[in-house]
Amino acid sequence: MNISGKILIASEWLQGEGNNFNASNPSNGQQSSETFSNASTAQAQAATLAASQAFDIYSQYSDQKKATFLRTIGIELEKVRSAIVQRATWETALPESRINGELGRTIGQLNMFAQLLEDGDWKRPVIDLAQPDRQPLPKPDIRLTQVPLGPVVVFSASNFPLAFSVAGGDTASALAAGCPVIVKNHNAHPGTSEIVASAIVAAIKQCGIPSGVFSMLHGDGRIIGAGLVTDPKVKAVGFTGSITGGRALYNLAVGRPEPIPFYGELGSTNPVFLLPKSLDANAEEIASSFIGALMMGVGQFCTSPGILIAIKGQSLNRLLASLAEKTPALNAASMLTAGICKSYQQSCLTREAMPSLTKIASGESADSKASQAQVNLFSVDAVDYLKQTELEEEVFGPSTLVVCCEDSDQLLAVAKSLGGHLTAALFSEEADQDLASQLLPVLQQRVGRILFDGYGTGVELSSAMSHGGPYPSSTASQTTSVGTRSIERFIRPVCYQNTPDALLPIELKNANPDSVMRLVNNKWSTDAIS
Amino acid sequence: MNISGKILIASEWLQGEGNNFNASNPSNGQQSSETFSNASTAQAQAATLAASQAFDIYSQYSDQKKATFLRTIGIELEKVRSAIVQRATWETALPESRINGELGRTIGQLNMFAQLLEDGDWKRPVIDLAQPDRQPLPKPDIRLTQVPLGPVVVFSASNFPLAFSVAGGDTASALAAGCPVIVKNHNAHPGTSEIVASAIVAAIKQCGIPSGVFSMLHGDGRIIGAGLVTDPKVKAVGFTGSITGGRALYNLAVGRPEPIPFYGELGSTNPVFLLPKSLDANAEEIASSFIGALMMGVGQFCTSPGILIAIKGQSLNRLLASLAEKTPALNAASMLTAGICKSYQQSCLTREAMPSLTKIASGESADSKASQAQVNLFSVDAVDYLKQTELEEEVFGPSTLVVCCEDSDQLLAVAKSLGGHLTAALFSEEADQDLASQLLPVLQQRVGRILFDGYGTGVELSSAMSHGGPYPSSTASQTTSVGTRSIERFIRPVCYQNTPDALLPIELKNANPDSVMRLVNNKWSTDAIS
Question: Annotated Gene Ontology MF terms (chains A, B) (predicted)?
């Protein structure tokens, strides 16, 4: 597939007026033959203007029309699967199987939102009927639904070039909500992004969607990214990335004359608690499953297990021995970018130099010309861990810290010391339930997902998923960026009082033609109102 | 009832270590015999520490236990009704009937949240059952519920000394969610607040609630208020007040190392559109009903109609004539505080001096020693209105601007020029529906509630209510501060994956003992899972 290197404004490919750059293959440093062009500030403004004009039309679309659009994007993506796989493996050094799987997930997300729209009750309609005879004052007819916020800026993530990128979860949920999207692309995979954006353009044309509904820009986060976040036409932002970059953009979003919601998923260490009876029974199995989770995407998952917490004793020794035995054989692998690799190596060096940390083992040594990461496992005594808050910070890459506690009280103290994370995992047997039940209320206050006997690395596409958590794992802990509820980031309530039926949105009309589930006079019902 | 003038920390009345102040009666400037004491920064920290300790226990309470607590507060408030009425009328210059009504509303809010807790489905539980045989990977069991955020700071409003104050909507919804509350009291009604807080303390004692669940502090917003908002133990803020004060506190909340949600209801002008056929049919009736709405609480409702928009012609002339005829007889009345009155007078003088504005009429002249407001109605040509954005700003008090448009296009242009407001109203007949249907999508983007043939001044307590809107009417347009949905400001999602049934929160257990409505495998159901 031909890559133009252009930017996309309102479904038109244009030469960017900013600097040029090349894509590169992290596994060998090779530069792309094509040159990509960054957007200028004026071009970014043209994209938001087009989005804001398109919003007036697109926000009024029926759920069915938006669902068809989302499904069509999925079909168009499937058509260019081989081009995406070829380009994405080159740009990210991720294996074919992973890219194929991630493309399936991306299409699955689009279809999941299409299904949500077809089911029809995502706006959570509520109807309180009038009581004209109520004393001392008549009660009006009141009906509640949701409307889209307006144009949304989506910042692509480096670590999921498809599922959290151009046509990823943020884009899908915003489009489903009725919001136009401007993607600020991640320059770690610009060619992949162009192919994906072309599929969206094809769907826009097929479905007759206003062209301003989608734009995709290359550009520096500090210039084009900041410009988009502070543009008055933009009404919300989705972001996945580093704490430093995310917080800087968050500050801009909330510092605007009109502050807007900034949905940033920033960083998480995903503590894993190995409770005593489970560790007794499964030390070796846990070592194996842990390594499997750690190695996913070269440790570059936001849900990668960064801290294991266990109580000292023979079973923990078995676990450590098993890790020490298995780790040296773990392959070094290329990371997503040379910059990410450098930063990972620096973090490992810092940990190597800390006197309180013990190296458990390292994997195969890394070829730094290939931006490879070497696996590095460390352990620390809980007493020392509790004194060094920086040990809780995420190391982006395949490194984990085992925190060794004296007893269950100290394990609880470690839990209580935690800040915000996306997930916490517990390995537990039935005989551990007493300790588990003490841990749960502590973890509940600190994470967005609690899972048993597994790792957070698999983030299911589900109506029951929560992918988010207290700061810094998310800048908006009350929302999720995965699963159907993520659509709620891009809508807000509007209440209609004493409104003629003819003027009500379809989900609030008496007839309820789509048989949507509604709360009517505080009872759930799919019935029409007679 | 004896007023001590003390502050309340974790159910204990203490002498504040800050400055002293007296309450005053705005209608005559009389100072209270009692002296009130402001909290010191250390005392504010003691309150948040107690709240954070109490949170560990209170957040785990059953819905039934919290419901009983809320109902008990209501019962205790009813017991001190006469003391509240006596004190609040003295402190606010609002009439007895209003205070009696507002106390009823306040108790109604507490009972509404108790009922919500008893109904049990406010946590919106979702269950996606496991599919162990799914290919290529088994699907885990995933269940979603909500947990409370932590200690909440509530800033009392001046204009609703009960319903948006110590035991008002923010407090009731936070307590219902499972969050301890620290009230930063408004010093316009400190004695009233002490009586109300005593009722909460009585309920805390009766129900055996941890004492740290409630504190109430007097203090300067810029010192104690700012200290509370930036206290790391505080996890959310509810605020009703001015744009200046609210935005300053919002900036502190989002500027913390760990940003927290700030739910500020700041300012709204609540535009009212008088569509042509309705104005033809009802000019005089609209003049009467408008005056009724404007005079509510001396124009000090956040939903007070500040702008009327209509098309020039005979019918608008009839409306203006009717307003000119009725207004001179409208009584001057004392405002909530001398400061509010001064600021109202200043706003009116500014408008008097604007060459583009025409005075329609004024009410009875005001006695400024009694902090009285005189009604002032102005009109402006839409051409001039569209040039002066400051005319959209709220004037807190009984003054309204009539915007006179050439035609329906200009009326739509005025609608499109609007920023964020709490409400918009339309007066319309069936023959106006074409214009109404053009207005609705415009207003939908700009307000939180759209109402027909009435004014926003009545804010129904309902599951279908939305009291909020785009900035500056609210700093969090995706939430409501009135109605059952307001509880959602103080909770966040937590997902449980592969969790043993014994360890799940009750609303997620297979047995579903409370028959809560849940989304199970994407179908609504109150059934148990077998």
Answer: oxidoreductase activity, acting on the aldehyde or oxo group of donors, NAD or NADP as acceptor
Can you list the pairs that A14-23 forms with residues at least 24 positions away whose Cβ atoms lie under 8 Å? A14/A43, A16/A40, A16/A43, A16/A217, A16/A218, A16/A219, A17/A42, A17/A43, A18/A43, A18/A218, A18/A219, A18/A220, A18/A223, A18/A224, A19/A220, A21/A187, A21/A190, A21/A218, A23/A91, A23/A187, A23/A189, A23/A190, A23/A191
So what CATH class is B271-452? alpha beta
Backbone angles phi, psi at A377, to 5 degrees: -110, 135
CATH of A272-452, one of 3.90.1440.10, 3.90.550.10, 1.20.140.10, 3.40.309.10: 3.40.309.10
Q: Which residues of A touch B495 (CB under 8 A)?
A: 448-450, 464-466
Query: Do B8-17+37-61+121-188+208-266+480-488 and B271-452 fold alike per CATH?
Result: no
Question: Which of A91, A102, A302, A405 is an active site residue?
Answer: A302
**Cβ-based contacts of A143 with chain B (< 8 Å):** 464
d(CA A109, CA A484): 9
Segment A297-315, tens digit of pLDDT: 999 999 999 999 999 999 9
B-chain CB neighbours of A127 within 8 Å are 464
- pLDDT of B270-308, one tens digit each? 999 999 999 999 999 999 999 999 999 999 999 999 999
Residue A138 — very low, low, confident or very high, per pLDDT cuts 50/70/90?
very high
Task: Tell me which residue in A458, A488, A517 faces B524 most closely, judged by beta carbons.
Answer: A517
Q: Is A348 a catalytic residue?
A: no
Rounded percentage of chain A residues whose pLDDT exceeds 90: 98
The answer to whether the Cβ–Cβ distance between B144 and A485 falls below 8 Å is yes
A448: closest chain B residue by CA: B494
**Candidates 3.40.605.10, 3.30.420.100, 3.30.750.200, 3.40.50.150; CATH matching B8-17+37-61+121-188+208-266+480-488:** 3.40.605.10
Q: Do A462 and B258 touch (CB under 8 A)?
A: no
Residue of B121, B478, B485, B524 to mutate when probing chain A, most A C-beta within 10 A: B478
Start-to-end C-alpha separation, chain B? 57
Residue A358 confidence (pLDDT) above 90: yes
* pLDDT (average), residues B19-35: 95
- Dump pLDDT digits (tens) for A441-481: 999 999 999 999 999 999 999 999 999 999 999 999 999 99
The pLDDT of residue A221: 86
Q: What is the mean pLDDT of chain A?
A: 97
Assess contact for A328 and A361: CB atoms under 8 A: yes
Residue A24's φ and ψ, nearest 5 degrees, are: -145, 155
Please report, for chain B, the start and end positions of each structural domain, with discontinuous segments joined by +. 8-17+37-61+121-188+208-266+480-488, 271-452
CATH fold of the domain at A8-17+38-122+142-266+480-488: Aldehyde Dehydrogenase; Chain A, domain 1 (3.40.605)
